[in-house]
């Protein structure tokens, strides 16, 4: 199982796009949270965290690369649980 954190500018549809990427990679979201805060420039920033079970082995770099392609994503952090 992996924990994935995605930090991005907030916008409508963001969580859906993250979920779609995970689904296409045969991942199942076990738990998740999404929080929005205001940064120093008064932008709304989303911090999405999810524990994911992948049906097949997945390489962190491939997952990270796919998530970073989502519009306005600033950072992706993946850790093994």
Structural account:
- With 81 residues, the protein is an alpha+beta fold.
- Helices cover 25% and strands 48% of the residues.
- It has a four-stranded antiparallel sheet.
- The protein is built from two helices and four strands, in the order E-H-E-E-H-E.
- The protein has helices at residues 14-24, 60-68; strands at residues 2-9, 27-38, 44-54, 73-80.
- The chain is elongated and about 40 Å long.
- The mean pLDDT is 94.
Main traits of this protein?
81 residues, alpha+beta, four-stranded antiparallel sheet
Question: In a nutshell, what does this entry contain?
Answer:
The protein has helices at 14-24, 60-68, and strands spanning 2-9, 27-38, 44-54, 73-80. The chain has 81 residues and is an alpha+beta fold. A four-stranded antiparallel beta sheet has the order 2-3-1-4.
Biggest pleated-sheet summary: 4 strands, antiparallel
Q: Show unreliable segments.
A: none
Radius of gyration: 12 Å
pLDDT averaged over residues: 94
Spatial strand sequence of the major β-sheet? 2-3-1-4
Kindly state the number of beta strands: 4
Range of helix content = 10-25%
What pattern of helices and strands is seen along the backbone? EHEEHE
Beta-strand share of residues: over 45%
The rough form would be described as elongated
What is the helix tally?
2
Distance between the termini: 5 Å
**Which structural category fits the helices and strands?**
alpha+beta
């Amino acid at each position: 199982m992996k924990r994935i954190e995605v930090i991005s500018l907030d916008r409508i549809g963001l969580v859906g796009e993250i979920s779609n990427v995970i689904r296409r990679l045969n991942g199942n979201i076990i738990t998740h949270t999404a929080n929005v805060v205001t940064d120093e420039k008064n932008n709304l920033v989303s911090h999405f965290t999810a524990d994911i079970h992948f049906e097949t082995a997945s390489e962190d770099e491939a997952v990270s690369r796919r998530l970073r392609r989502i519009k306005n994503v600033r950072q992706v952090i993946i850790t093994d649980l």
